[in-house]
Design a protein that fits this description.
three-stranded mixed sheet; Chitinase A, domain 3; mainly alpha
Length: 231
């Protein structure tokens, strides 16, 4: 995802450079070039800056692409071709066509928003104390206990009683759940509901689970044959 975003950022930066330059005169272009540093190529009187090539190299390095003369030359060629095609698009008025102008503006906003976030992070570093305080705040909101429960969901009380009888005779809970539970999610897992706070269940099941917790010494192995409230 980051590489995709970086690709958009680079392509957008070059496109915006071409669009902005198309309306400037040669004197303005020369002034902008001097301000931005040396150019590595010129396309239709507009410079491709070394800084843009350096940006592409840094982005490539994050994905393991080496910084070599060959790599830089390939980037220059790609940017040159992109500038030529962008100029052609502007010449046809595509930058004013329906939807394109909005996309250009959206990309511009994205770049500016990203720049603002990076600037904020740079000038407002997160301290260990702030991280610790946030951790304590979140920890304080986590109340209660979590329990790992299992259930077998059936439609009728008679079915539940028959299952209980099988369990008392030594049948495996997991096997029955896989074959007879009406809950497609937990049934395939042998009735396993995973770890959860009882408050996350429907009231009837949470209450039944609470009774089991009260009468059993360990919260880690609970079994429950569950019937819907309509049964």
């Amino acid at each position: 995802m980051r590489l995709f975003e970086h690709g958009i950022l680079l392509a957008s930066a070059v496109s915006l450079l071409a669009l902005g330059a198309c309306s400037a005169d040669k004197a303005a272009d020369a002034t902008a070039t001097a301000a931005k540093g040396p150019a590595v190529a010129t396309v239709n009187g507009k410079a491709i800056q070394q800084s843009l090539v350096d940006l592409a190299v840094r982005q490539g390095a994050s994905s393991g692409r080496p910084d070599t003369p060959e790599t830089r030359q390939a980037i220059v060629e790609q940017l040159t071709m992109q500038a030529v095609v962008a100029d052609a698009a502007v010449g046809k008025g595509l930058d004013k066509s329906e939807g394109i102008a909005e996309q250009i503006d959206a990309v511009r906003q994205s770049i500016l928003a990203n720049a603002y976030v990076q600037d904020y992070i740079k000038n407002n570093p997160v301290t260990d104390e702030a991280l610790r305080a946030e951790y304590e705040r979140i920890k304080a909101t986590l109340t209660g206990s979590e329990y790992k429960a299992r259930h077998i969901l059936v439609e009728k009380e008679d079915e539940a009683k028959a299952i209980i009888a099988q369990l008392k005779k030594g049948a495996k809970f997991e096997d029955i759940a896989k074959k007879q539970s009406k809950d497609p999610g937990s049934g395939a897992q042998g009735g396993d509901l995973g770890w959860a706070n009882p408050s996350g269940y429907v009231p009837e099941f949470a209450q039944a689970l609470g009774c089991l917790l009260y009468t059993s010494p360990s919260p880690r192995d609970r079994t429950r044959t569950r019937m819907p409230s309509s049964a």
